[in-house]
Every structure is written in C-alpha cells, then in structure tokens.
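Table S7 (text form). Paired inputs.
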Amino acid sequence: MIRFLFLTGAAIIMILGCSKEASSKKRGDPVREGSWVSASILDEGQDSDKRQEFTQSNIGDVVHENQPKNSADSNGIEELIEKLSDMNPDHLILVDKTHALKAGFKPANLVDLALYPEISRSRDGLYLERAAAEALAELSKAARKEGITLLVSSAYRSYDYQKNLYDSYVEETGEEDRSLAKPGTSQHQLGTAVDFGDVTESFADTRAGRWIEENGGKFGWSLSYPRYPPGEYMWESWHWRWIGVDAVRLQDEFFEGSQHKMLHYLHLRD
C-alpha cells in the first residue's frame, strides 16, 4: 500500500502529456504515445527507480510552477491523498519516457473485454485490468443511455508486444523517433489505458469524444495527454487512463486537470 505524504516547497519537474499516435499495421495498435514537442530537461537514460536530481538553477525554475495550485488548502489535498493510499498502487504508477516499466511488469487480473457486453470493441483480443474493465463498462453503459457508442480500439499491450510494434516501425522506416512509445514507456502496459475511436485528433469532434470529455472523470477516467494546459507533449484526445474518481478530483482541483503533473507529484512523495 502506497502512502503519499503532502510536503510543500519541494522541487518537482513536471512534463505535461500529449501525443499524436500513428496506427501500426499490426493489429491496428498505435505505436506513438506521449510525443514530445520539445526535448525535456530530464535525462531519458535516467534510472526510473531513482528520484530526480536537480541543480540549484533547475530548482529555482520549477518550484513555483509545479506546486499544487491550491497548496494553501492543505487539508483538502491531504484528504484526497489519504483516500488514494487505499488504492492498488499499480493504478497510480507514473509511466513516461523517463519512468519506464520493467519488461516483466504485467497487471494482475487481466480480463477480456468481450466479457462485458456494454463495451464496444474494434476487434477481439482486447484486455484490461479488472477494475479498469469494470469502470469502462460503467462508462460505456452511461454513454449508451444517451445514444453514444464508445468504440475501444486498443487496450492492454505487453512489453514484448510494444517492442515488436516499435521494432517493426523502425525496420519499416529505417529511423527512430522520439515520439514513438518505446517498450516500457507506454501506459497501455499498465492495463488501465485505452484508445477510443479512430485514434486521430478528429475523435475530439465526434459525439463520443465530446461526451467522454465531459463525463469521463465521473467514472474515474482521465485524459492522459490533454490539449490544455499546454506542455511538452502533443495532445491525444483518444487516449484515456483509468485512475479512479478520487485521483481525477485531485488532478482537477490541485493540478489544473493534468494527470501527468499529479502522478509526478505523487511519485516524488512515494
């Protein structure tokens, strides 16, 4: 059980998330995730098990910007963090280009989404961790009541599967790209992230895209790479991660709706 302690005045380096995914020819899964708009000041080769180390100039640059915006309300944030301490710690793991999952990481209790008739799937063989699958079923059920279908295009992807996708892309194009989700850096490996629709920016303008933008948080779903506030990642309107209702409240009330900023904050306090 992870217990997060609220500390003020700590230096945190935050990278907001967004990306533009491109469909792979293999089973329709996208390779891109969390595309960088510009180079991060973090070292991509950094050991993800170690905390970030900053120079004095780094600290001066990031302290003010990356503290919770409502940090004066210490009671409110502590209450929410206390609730999160009862969650499965895997549901709040920080995964990005500087915090990679190990090759052997596999979520427990993976279930086939075919077991949930409420969930629309683009193909067979889509799995999620059970808690996320049940939350997705509730989300889909609520959408259907309003005549909206949320089509799931991609869900859990193992480290090896992501590696095959990445290697195939590099082999086909003859180049590596910082915007590609390398094995271990994709939220899909957590088993709590899904892609909806056609996996393009146009999803945001569909009825489904507008509906989930307005209602996803009520069911614990969070847009991993939002358009606002702008950051170092590109926007992905189709990529959503289940983090639970309380975590969504925490990100919205104290981190301007930024999932990545909130998770990074909690990661540094683990």
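Next pair, protein 2 of 2.
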Amino acid sequence: MKNTIYTFILLSIISSHNIFAMDIEMVANSLNLSAGSKAIMQWKRVFKSERKMKRYSINGLDKETKKRLEEYLIDHAIDSDKPTVAGGF
C-alpha cells in the first residue's frame, strides 16, 4: 500500500512539472523578446555572442531553455516562413 501511495505521489509530481512547465513563448515574453523584431541571422548572432546574450538576459537560462528559445526565435523571425508579428491575428 505504501509503495502505491509513493508511486502515486511521484507520478503526480512529474505530471505537475510537465503541466506547469513554462512555454517557450512565455519565456521569450518574460525577457521582452519578440521573435519578429529580428531577422534569422540577427538571432543567430545574438546566441553566438555572450555579450549579446547577457544584454537580453538570455545568459541566465539553462542550456536546454536557451536552445529551445533560440529555435523559437529563429523559427518566428521576421524573415522566416512563419514570422511573429506584433498585433497580428
């Protein structure tokens, strides 16, 4: 019985972590980064420069979040196939 309870608690914690995990778009918004504000090459330069990452407060993120943020910003850059535009519908 105890093992079942511990298993249930563990699964609940793991599930809640996934449910409450921050969406990468929310991370970008929290850093005041708009994907459509730069071209693909500009975002690539930001992530290659420690100074630029510090300027945008990206340097404080963990490695996986940085990677996902870079992918999101490049995928939605102004010159991408699916740009994010402020006030867009």
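DSSP finds five helices and no strands in the chain.
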